[in-house]
Design brief:
With 104 residues, the protein is mostly helical. The chain is 71% helix and 0% strand. It is globular and about 50 Å long. The termini are far apart. It binds magnesium ion (MG).
Length: 104
């Protein structure tokens, strides 16, 4: 198991313990959880230091929370997070190469 999947497993484990998710969460619950973090990101300040992780800003901390939320729910659905991210990055690479060719 890669490092990213190990982190996703931990995110899921801690979210379960904290009552932030449950096994087999439905679409509405998933969207509500991610939406709550998105609202926190909207309200976060770009220049104020996070109260929890002092070397991050509030905005950066909330972006990390969104990553944790997404990793949690991907793991909850049995997704290989590392492969999914890698496949999407490769797809974006191909798209970027196409954009480059179109602009030449
Ligand atoms: Mg948050």
């Amino acid at each position: 198991m890669g490092v990213l999947n190990e982190w996703a497993r931990k995110c899921f484990e801690y979210a379960i313990r904290r009552g932030k998710t449950r096994i087999g969460v439905n679409h509405e619950e998933l969207v509500r959880g991610i939406g709550e973090e998105f609202v926190e990101l909207c309200m976060a300040d770009r220049y104020i230091k996070s109260k929890h992780v002092g070397w991050l800003t509030e905005e950066q901390e909330e972006m990390v929370d969104l990553m944790i939320c997404c990793m949690t729910e991907l793991w909850n659905q049995g997704v290989d997070v590392e492969k999914a991210l890698n496949d999407k990055i490769l797809l974006n690479k191909k798209r970027a190469e196409r954009c480059r060719k179109e602009t030449l």
